[in-house]
Write a structure and sequence with these properties.
GO terms for molecular function: hydrolase activity. By secondary structure, this protein is an alpha/beta fold. Helices cover about 35% and strands about 15% of the residues. It has one domain: Rossmann fold (3-Layer(aba) Sandwich). It has a seven-stranded mixed β-sheet with strand order 1-3-2-4-5-6-7, with helices on both faces. Helix 1 packs across helix 2.
Length: about 250
């Protein structure tokens, strides 16, 4: 049986909208598992991408090149998405994956209704000289700690670090070798989410996502660091619902 990428923790195939979430570097589908309980079946169905080499795909080989990951995702998603309204949501590395995939799907005549980017600068700000994946385990841990104090848990739990560091190193390799292609302007709006103390995404960079679409791009900021998406989950979901209400009046206020 061919492995699949999407995880549906609360299936709702009759929902008017499908939200596909792309986790950050080192992350698995469980990072977005709580989201499935925060949308009801009259609002949206939530699907989360599970990259190979982690969680329930632990025994599978990693994918460490963006073109290979995009091709595999495109093959699966283009079959699932025809005839269905959908939104792509990506955090950090997942934002780059979601944006690249949105361009591919639009070229296939399957454009998303909305692209939601969280904690990720637009392609013109993609760093070309980052080499974190070549560093020692300690250097990778230092880089993670700069993103969020919550990553201190990896220092304090060596067994957890031993399990996760190969995944994190692989994903850093993927995103650091990634070279954005010339942008194909999207026909859908872009919603940008950022943490007020996120060193990975300045306000100027967040606003620059406007250059990637022919329509509106809006920026919403939240208290917190690079992982505000977890610490501010309720506020983030409430804002997402407010924006997505334009596609379905069934979205609740909360």
């Amino acid at each position: 049986m061919t492995p699949t990428f999407l995880r549906f923790y609360q299936p709702a195939p009759a929902a008017p909208l499908l939200i596909i979430c792309f986790p950050h570097a080192g992350g698995g589908a469980s990072a977005f598992r709580p989201w499935s309980c925060l949308f009801n079946e009259t609002e949206a169905e939530v699907a989360v991408v599970q990259y190979p080499g982690r969680e329930d795909r632990f025994s599978e080989p990693f994918i460490d090149a963006m073109p290979l990951l995009l091709e595999a995702l495109q093959q699966e998603l283009q079959l699932r998405l025809k005839g269905r309204r959908f939104v792509l949501f990506g955090h950090s590395m997942g934002g780059a994956v979601a944006h690249e995939l949105a361009q591919r799907l639009q070229q296939l005549g399957i454009p998303p209704e909305q692209l939601i980017i969280s904690g990720r600068p637009p392609p013109q700000f993609h760093p070309l000289d980052s080499t974190i994946h070549l560093g020692s385990d300690q250097q990778i841990l230092d880089a993670l700690l700069r993103l969020s104090a919550d990553n201190q848990a990896l220092r304090e739990q060596p067994e957890l670090a031993e399990l996760l560091l190969p995944v994190i190193r692989n994903d850093y390799r993927l995103i650091e070798h990634y070279r954005p292609q010339p942008v194909q302007l999207l026909s859908c709006p872009i919603m940008v989410l950022s943490g007020e103390n996120d060193s990975e995404l300045s306000l100027e960079q967040a606003q620059a996502w406007q250059s990637c679409t022919t329509v509106a791009s809006e920026v919403y900021r939240f208290p917190g660091d690079h992982f505000f998406i977890t610490s501010q989950r309720a506020a983030v979901v409430a804002r997402v619902k407010q924006v997505l209400r334009q596609f379905s009046p069934c979205f609740s206020e909360g």
